[in-house]
Amino acid sequence: MRDPTMKRFMIFVIDDSTELATAQEMAAIDRFNDQLRSHGHWLFAGGLSAPANGNVIDNRLGANVSTDKPLFDARENYSGFWLIQVESSEVAKQLAFDASKACHRKVELRPLLG
């Protein structure tokens, strides 16, 4: 059951390469994940494959369209994400700063609706 006093946010990792995180970055990410869990902020996290593996699907009105390519052809892309729950926007923002430091990449913080 979702706690209605908690707000949910996505922290998207912004990357400009297809290289995986270094061992040092992975260790920092693991520590950050442990911190999220210990404070009750962790909901889910994951990495995304390279944008070249993207495929935009549009089946509105039975269109059955598959592009076999990502939506955007850009140098920067999302390479991972965290789904968190927190008491306030301020806590979410601080966790986004911590996430950026841990993964050594820019991040984008966005609230979930509802």
Give structural notes.
The chain has helices at 23-38, 89-103; strands at residues 7-15, 42-47, 57-58, 65-66, 77-86, 106-111. It is of the alpha+beta class and 114 residues long. It has one domain: Dimeric alpha+beta barrel (Alpha-Beta Plaits, 2-Layer Sandwich), CATH 3.30.70. Strands 2-5-1-6 form a 4-stranded antiparallel beta sheet, with helices on one face. Strands 3-4 form a two-stranded antiparallel ribbon.
Low-confidence parts: none
Q: Which superfamily, in CATH terms, is the homologous superfamily?
A: Dimeric alpha+beta barrel
Going across the major beta sheet, what is the strand order?
A: 2-5-1-6
Instruction: Count the domains.
Output: 1
What CATH calls the topology is Alpha-Beta Plaits
Largest sheet, described in full?
Answer: 4 strands, antiparallel
The number of helical elements comes to 2
**What string, H for helix and E for strand, traces the elements in order?**
EHEEEEHE
- In quaternary terms, these chains amount to single chain
**Gap from first CA to last CA:** 14 Å
Hey, roughly how much beta strand do the residues contain? 25-35%
Compute the number of strand runs: 6
